[in-house]
Write a structure and sequence with these properties.
Number of domains: 3
Keywords: Membrane, Transmembrane, Transmembrane helix
Shape: rod-shaped
CATH architecture of the largest domain: Alpha-Beta Barrel
Strand content: 5-15%
Organism: Asticcacaulis currens
Number of helices: 25
CATH class of the largest domain: Alpha Beta
Number of strands: 17
Pfam families: EAL, GGDEF
CATH superfamily of the largest domain: EAL domain
Protein name: EAL domain-containing protein
Structural class: alpha/beta
InterPro entries: Biofilm_reg_signaling, EAL_dom, EAL_sf, GGDEF_dom, Nucleotide_cyclase, Rev_trsase/Diguanyl_cyclase
Largest sheet: 10 strands, mixed
């Protein structure tokens, strides 16, 4: 008894593990239950419709055969049942066409099963033949292979087998004995076949649904940004190609590129989780502003793109851009109580079907407008126009020429003096880059410097110009400094800064005589990286000047973080000195600020005696401008220092 109990327990554990494994197979991988049910119905539909079609055809034959084999009242009974079964089967065959409803399939299968059962029962009731009791077993096999679910198989099979046993019992014990084991084998076989078939079908359906889900997820990942849920670069270019085709048919549109200003410092300060939350919020704000009027995509990092379905006028597009920038500028309340403030620069370009631009050409123009915005109007929109087209073409020619020129021989330096009004002498010279191209002739500095920055050649050019400047410094008085401009790319590259330091050391010039000028925009593009670069320069002993102060953000909030020795006040203030008294107050405030922070100041762009006189009145000390001297070649400096001809003009202003 104990052995039997243990064996029963073992069998129970075995079936329990088998059941759990089957359930696990069904549940492996998260799938939508409704979709799984729909796909099961689709998989089972051909089986049920096949049953209906076969039974409908079979009973047409049976209907006809009854007219040959039946007589009397048996004929109308059997013919009617056969005809009804055939008709009902074909009705269900068409009723289930295209259905994805499991209940409809179950009803169809159950009714057809019932009609087949009634036909067999009627035949045996009218013409009982013990050997044909096996038809009930055959019915259970049909039920097992064609029914949608076990709740259809179970009652149908049990009714058929019980009916067989009942009729066999009435026929006598020998007949019953003969059919008992046949019935048991039939019911076991039916349930076994039903379980195996449905398990196989349902596993296959589950695997297909799971594969479809993974394929859909892969497609989503291939076309959408995983972080923000916006279309990604690949999807964006697909949409852009479609938009360009539409533009040739009269459906003009606008394209925009957006780059966030100040994102990297937030990301570096608070970590990637906060940076990710910020990008998600940016995506939401962009979608809110664009609405249904276009496509918002994330191209990567902190760069986004817009395809605006309806082309706007320049004024309307500029207003839209301002709304966009205003939305991006609002304070971001992120997790952990973090408040972040960033802005976004936007470059727009109108589609022009006549120009027949490709996607990359149109994107290049939007990118140029964005570059212009970041260089000149950070945090504001810029629309690509004919002037930008001309500049871009010039940049293209300049870029190609830069790459193929002997820059060592073609680049040179001119120097403009910086004057100490109290000491009435020149104390420093700013080194200014010039390029006399063999192919293009003289090229404006703003053009070739920007082209070099975009092409990545600027670091090489910086080293060439720095070496030339240091050679000139050797002939100057030992107390005279040189100011040398560094680009944003130089500051973003620690290897480039190290090469600059090595160049200074190899020159033999005292590093304290070298003042490196940096711009506000160069600092703000990556403040932490710039601070690290400036620390290397300061560690060498060089001075740091903040150039063009006032032309950009003029943020006093970060000045205390800079290892600056001097602030250069932008010439845009000088041009307004004699027109607006408020400008005079601003300049005086800046001069006082420098004094309070123990910083030197230099005021750029002084060109007239009246401007100089006004600056002297408000306490300006260091001046630079055409009033004193134009930029000069290195060989002209000795004569300039000897003459210091500007002193006569300075005395006349007193």
């Amino acid at each position: 008894m104990l052995i039997r109990t243990e064996r029963t327990a073992e069998w129970r554990r075995y079936f329990h593990r088998l059941f759990r494994r089957m359930r696990a197979d069904y549940r492996r991988g998260e799938v939508d239950p409704a979709e799984l049910k729909r796909q099961r119905a689709i998989a089972l539909r051909p089986i049920v419709r096949g049953l209906c079609g076969v039974v409908g055809s079979y009973y047409i034959i049976i209907f006809i055969s009854h007219f040959f084999y039946e007589t009397g009242m048996d004929l109308p009974i059997m013919a009617s049942l056969a005809g009804l079964t055939s008709l009902a089967s074909w009705v269900f065959f068409f009723w289930t066409r295209g259905t994805e409803n499991t209940h409809r399939l179950e009803i169809s299968g159950l009714v057809v099963n019932l009609l087949m059962y009634i036909n067999v029962v009627a035949y045996q009731s009218l013409h009982f033949e013990p050997p044909k009791l096996v038809y009930f077993v055959l019915l259970t096999l049909v039920y097992a292979t064609s029914a949608v679910s076990l709740r259809v198989v179970l009652p149908s099979s049990l009714v058929a087998i019980v009916t067989m046993f009942f009729m066999a019992h009435h026929a006598g014990y020998p007949v019953l004995k003969q059919h008992v084991w046949v019935g048991i084998a039939g019911i076991v076989t039916a349930f076994g076949m039903a379980g195996i078939m449905r398990t196989t079908i349902f596993r296959a359906v589950h695997a297909r649904v799971l594969a479809d889900k993974h394929r859909h997820e892969a497609q989503v990942l291939a076309h959408y940004d995983a972080l923000t849920g916006l279309p990604n670069r690949r999807s964006f270019f697909t949409e852009l190609d479609v938009a360009l085709i539409g533009a040739t048919r009269g459906h003009a549109f606008d394209l925009a590129l957006i780059d966030l200003d100040g994102f990297k410092p937030v990301n570096d300060l608070y970590g990637h989780s906060v940076g990710d939350a910020l990008l998600i919020e940016v995506g939401k704000r962009l979608r809110a502003v664009v609405g249904d009027g276009g496509v918002v995509a994330r191209l990567g990092g902190d760069e986004f793109a817009l395809i605006l379905n309806r082309q706007r006028s320049d004024d309307a597009l500029r207003r839209f851009g301002e709304d966009l920038c205003d939305a991006l500028r609002e304070t971001y309340l992120l997790g952990g109580g973090v408040c972040a403030n960033i802005s976004g620069s936007v470059g727009f370009v109108h589609s022009e079907p006549a120009a027949q631009w490709s996607a990359s050409q149109m994107l290049e123009r939007a990118d140029y407008a964005l570059y212009y915005a970041k260089q000149n109007l950070r945090g504001a929109p810029v629309i690509f126009d004919r002037r930008h087209e001309s500049e871009m073409q010039d940049f293209g020619a300049v870029d190609q020429t830069l790459r193929s020129s002997d820059l060592e021989s073609e680049l040179y330096i001119v120097f403009q003096p910086q004057i100490d009004l109290r000491a009435q002498r020149t104390v420093s010279f700013e080194a200014l880059a010039r390029w006399q191209s063999e192919k293009l002739g003289p090229v404006r500095p703003d053009i070739f410097i920007r082209a070099a920055e975009r092409s990545g050649l600027i670091s090489d050019i910086t080293l060439i110009l720095l070496r030339k400047a240091l050679v000139a410094v050797r002939d100057w008085p030992a107390d005279m400094r040189v100011s040398f401009n560094l680009s944003a790319r130089d500051l973003r590259s620690l290897p480039a800064i190290r090469r600059i330091c090595d160049t200074v050391r190899l020159s033999g010039i005292d590093a304290q005589r070298i003042e490196f000028e940096i711009t506000e925009t160069a600092m703000l593009s990556d403040l932490d990286q710039a601070l690290e670069a400036l620390a290397l320069l300061k560690g060498m002993g060089s001075r740091i000047a903040l150039d063009d102060f006032g032309s950009g953000y003029s943020s006093f909030g970060y000045i205390h973080r800079l290892p600056a020795d001097k602030i250069k006040i932008d010439r845009s203030f000088v041009t307004q000195l004699l027109r607006h008294e408020s400008t005079v107050k601003i300049v005086k405030t800046l001069i006082d600020l420098c004094g309070n922070l123990s910083l030197d100041h230099v005021i750029e762009g002084v060109e007239t005696a009246a401007e100089l006189r006004r600056l002297e009145e408000i306490g300006a000390r260091y001046i630079q401008g055409y009033y004193f001297a134009e930029p000069m070649r290195a060989e002209a400096i000795r004569a300039y220092l000897t003459a210091e001809s500007w002193r006569e003009g300075l005395k006349q202003t007193g």
